[in-house]
Task: structure prediction
Amino acid sequence: MRKTVVLYSNLWATVFMMAMFVLSSLTGGARPGLQPLKGKVIVLDPGHGGGDPGTVGVGTTTEAENVLAIAWELKGMLEKAGAEVIMTRQSDSNPAWGTVYAAQENGQLASRVAVANRSQGQVFISLHNDWHDDRSVQGTSVHFYKSQDLALAESLQRALVSRLHTVDLGVQRSNFYVLRNTTMPAVLVEIGFLSNPQEAARLSQPTYRLEVARALLMGINEYFAQL
Ligand SMILES: [Zn+2]
Result:
């Protein structure tokens, strides 16, 4: 008899726990986890655009289109979590157009850096897709240059690989203009290869772009949480 009572109490405890779990997820229980993003200023830099499609791979969409769509998804998620987001371009345009950088060689990159450095952004994240002569090559890498970039690069790479299950090409030190010239922690993310048929097809899908944005959100959140 006593055994039955114990069994019942365990059952009710389980039911209670499950009800609480359902309730907390319905009321946005995941939100407190994104607390580190509140009030942060984040610069998103969708690569290319405005006459520069970036990589045109074997899929139906260009690099410039893919990364702009991912940036818009990510912007919405970050703002929902209380962050402020600055985008270096919001449409299929060249950020140098109409600025003093338009006539300059490297003007497109210089204008991105100028937006970032003026913004007092706490992090700068440049979004790209990769390309390789060998079509079988796939995966994701995050690039950094300055020592202050490394922690952000590692958080993003970890989140991308674990959430998207892509091949882990690691964190790499690369002498890229936007990394070298930005004054805040900055990274350049190479999400998938447009030379690879599977990854090119995936990156053209809105649902996959949403997943990429979610992975980036998690990585940025982890970065701020560990500061
Ligand atoms: Zn690119």
Summary: The longest helix spans residues 2-26.
